[in-house]
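Q: Can someone sanity-check these two? First one:
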Amino acid sequence: MNENIGAEELETVAFEIGVVVPKSSGNNKDGDETNDCIEVLVDEFRKAGLIVDRVVGLQNEFLRLGAPLKTLGQAAAELQLKKRTHIGVDLQFHWDEVEAYERQPDGSLFSWFERYCCHRHIIYGIVNTSTSTIILKSDGNEVHWEPGKPLLRTLESMGIVKEVFPVHDETKRKQLLRSWALNWWDFTVQPIDDICNYYGTKIASYFAFLGMYTRWMLFPAAFGLTVQLVDFGSLQLFVLSAFFISIISWAVLFFQFWKRKNSALLVRWQMNYPAVDNESKYLEDEWYQFQSPVELMKKQGADKTDKPRGKEAFQREEWLGHFMRFRNDAMIILSIICLQLPFELAFAHVYEVLRSDVSKFCLTAVYLFTIQYFNKIGGKISVKLVKYENNKNIERRADSWVYKVFGLYFMQSYIGIFYHALLHRNIMTLRQVLIQRLIISEVLENMLQNSLPYLKYSFKKYRAVGNKRKREKGASSEKIQYMSRVEKEYLKPDYSASIGEELEDGLFDDFLELALQFGMIMMFACAFPLGFAFATLNNITEIRTDALKLLAMLRRPIPRPDATIGAWLNIFQFLIVMSICTNCILLVCLYDHEGKWKISPGIAAILIMEHVLLLLKFVFSRIVPEEPAWIKANRMKNATHVHDMCSRQLLRSISGEKMHAELKKDE
């Protein structure tokens, strides 16, 4: 351990990064460990101010790294992080002025995302500062550490360092298990600030959205339950129309109030966008997920020496990016229409014709297997297309990819339902399909999402123990050696997306499940009002199961800087517009039983209602401000304060220069 770190500070330091290296084989013939690459790596970590805890596992050795506050502060200053000050302005961080900066909601100086960036900067910033190559040893092989090269990158390229990953803080993890994952009595209440402090703003935004969405769902769930169970006789169509108007108004108002809540969360979590330019430093540099800190520092230095680009260059780059995105979107839409649409329509038609339940079950199994293969191919193609777009940062690339892939899932999830609703006008079959999708599909989805990570972890753990027994004879008759906590975390699966893991993490699957559920209960609300009640029960369970999955079954995810739901907000807004159109068509089908499609007063009223609801969506989005008044007032107050300070500083500078000039003139 580091000798210059006090005992009290040492106790408060959490180990948040794990480095996986091979176990020492003991084959060092001369007994000199000064040039052993693992020993050198540990020594360099300690010289950089990190606390290193070495844990020997069954197959590998694990280096748990922790950083004292001073070490993190110095790294933050080198990275030129911007942090919120007490006057409400984001300024470049300086360790000597640490008291000027606001603390996080839990009292810590740095957020988990900032700490992760600082850790990565420290461990990948260890370079060979000498002018000659340093020869290191690893199991009898030579490792050449060249001048100016990061040591960790060199060892990674040689396969000596197997992986660098975030590790759980056991104290905080157990606290979240008690107050969040296992706290079923509070239903939708969650410790959002604690989630943000531990997992970062992106995951906290998802759970804040899921909690608010579930609470707001109680109204349409109660209304839908009443409409479904009570027989209103001749007034049934009128009640369905009132229910339809209510849920559209509910959805529009919910997303407006979510924007307000999200603005408040941005302020509370000290995020400086979307009020400022999205191309801020947080997003622009992509924060080590694809580049090392050394490479980023070189890039920043090169950017400073580059000549400023002219207006024409910016316009050329802007329109080229728009053209590439339009071209890629057109390719995806044409592929969906020409390839996926005929397949989905053929499946829906065969499913309608078949009479045997066994045949329908076999057909559905083949369909699900085939469509998963199509989705993976579509996801990989979308990733390649996005790479050619002129997106400024990883979050924008992820949003562009989400739009493309959602088109595939939209067609897969809804085209069969549209077929039953619009072509066959079979409301009973439509309700059966909706019940299957809402109940069976979501239950199976939750079971797979929570069981597959555990099965993967159990298999890896069993294989690791089996390999240990094979290497050590007679170990089978002894008690099995228990794995350390860090080794168990290493064997757990990542929080990654089912497709497109290059651009998205597991939040893609969680948001996709919510979006498909929202589209299903909204677009066919008049056919199955009870769907809102099923969705509410599912979401209450989803909050706890997703929390348990993150805390107990998966590795700690890499934090992301964004604090909004990104592209999914526009997808939800699109689904609201689609809901207005589809429900109006359903009401026409219920009103016009004979299918004559003649313009009667009833059908005319439904068509007028469609246009009124579209107008109502626009009006509500203007009446309810997206940002609370107190946030605007605070921003104006802070801007005025900064302006006054800058003005006084400028006046002092001008006065000082004038006095200096007069004194020089007198001399």
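And here is the second, same format, sequence then tokens:
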Amino acid sequence: MADPTAITAALTGLFPLVKEVFLMTQVLFEADKKLRSFWARVELQRAIFDAWEDGWLDARDKPDDKIKAYAFEKPLLARGILKEFVSLLKTLSDPDKLKKRYGLRPERIPKYATRNDDVPRDLRYYSDYLSSVDSRFNIKGLPAFNKSINDHLNLLKTVRYVIVGKDYELEDVVIRFTEFNRDLQLYTDSEANNEAAQRIYEVVLTGLHSKPDDPARLAEAALFEQKATIDPDAKRFYGDIAKFIGFSLSLRDVTVLNGRGLSPNMPSQKIFTRRDFSFDAPYKLGPHSTLARLLDYPTKYQTRLVLVEWVPVPKTVNVKTKLEGLKSEWYVLHADKPDGLLLPTAQGLVYDNTDSNFIGIVFQLPSHIRTEVPTKIAGRVDPRVVRSPKTTAAQRMPTSLRQLILQQPALDLGVRFKLAQKLLNSLHLMHTAGWMHKRIRADNILFFPSQSRDGEPDPTRLDFENPFLAGFHSARLEIETSSVLEVAAKPLEHIRPLQGLGKVLNQPRVVALDAYQHPEYRYNVNLPYRNQYDLYGVGAVLLELGLWETLEMLEKGDIGRRGYDPRVVPTKDDIRKDGETVERAGWKLDRIMGSTYGKVVRECLTLKPMPGDLLGLERTLVARLAHCQA
């Protein structure tokens, strides 16, 4: 068996060669506009390889240490990776195979050409060392091997490919890179593959603002690969890449338009009035959100159940100006998104001249929830059972994570681990695309009834596989506080009264709603919102999920005792105490959820500014949560 030390040195040396053959192929296809589709597909495979390669790099951008550890821990898999490197380089450095299999001929770049050039001979000579990489490869041959790598790399930098074959032969070049990446994943452990799958979203957005056409072509390439493959996992992978790029491009478009003082065009049929809906009391979720029946949609006599979130319009703001601003939010949220983002699809806005105080954002619900809502049809006898709103609501209404924690026993550890990973992964994807949620709280995480075998909602089971992120209205949501404060050590009269009113409210607002926000932001809400503040909010939710206590229940109701009305500004001392309470509670997670989960949550909840690569930290935290198992 090959020596692990030799495998490490060989792989480290061959990385630049693999990247060079990717580059040579890209240059070939980029030079001809007719071959741009091939260029995009090779660029996509290179992005996948770059995402995989980045997982091996250390702080010095060197792969030595991680590869060495992998080679000693899993020598057979490391040897498999080396074999894939060698196989690709042999194929793309062999003049005979290049011409016969792919319709390519290597030739010298003109500025490096000499009178006695013989590129095929040089390629055969300088790539011959690759044949020495077999099961007997060991450290004794490394000095000569490393010299050959340098010579081979220097040669490739002076050579280019020229097309001499047909298009179907060029197709085989792309397929070869696709197979190479697929085989690398087979020889890589699940943790590294999961990190690479996260990192690919960052890689494909390189140059999003400077060269927006490049990501768009990568999206087209991903759609092509999605249609071409029969592997369901690969279909999902490529489809998610295409959707993610599309979502990111919509964000970029809105940013550009808003910078010019413009808003995106919105079809008139996407702007509804209140008359288009039936707002029934049983569908109400809270003061600013409700389910509603959208009538005569998508066709006459049909009905769809939707979520409407009401955005208050301050008296100091012109309602038309607010409407134009919400068009940007609609434009982004109506774009296709990968399932991992957990963001709902926006169907339109509710704007009525008769009510200038609120504008609604209409969101699409899961297919088994939104469809088949029976209604009476005018002038016809409808054989279907016409259910009352109360009956329909009992079957289709969502339950928030907050409600679950307050009313139900703790979910199984396995369910909580998966949910935590989904939420943190969703946040990472949002931040990678350039989106910030700003209101991640347990009451904004909804679970709808699962789908039964006959396709109907099953109100006895909630769908924990597909959490629904809500909370896109700009106002802070006021939630019901009855029974919540019963967990507090002190009775209701100890809740702080409204300043200036001289009395205690029967149902005060709970300070825990603000405790989801990073203390730094609570000190000064005029600060520019940062990704770290979102990460803090997710950390607070993961804390609740792990302890199965809402924030106001922590430390025997310590935060809950500082409840106050929305019109009361909290003191800095209150904010500091809330942060300390949350921080202390984080240390209780280890004995319930394990030390890995506890460390992840505490990193999310850190009060110190996070310099450097926050996306990299989020990616690492997602990978760590993947190790948490019941």
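A (reply): Looked at the second one. Residues 376-385, 474-511 have pLDDT under 50 and may be disordered. The longest strand covers residues 303-312.
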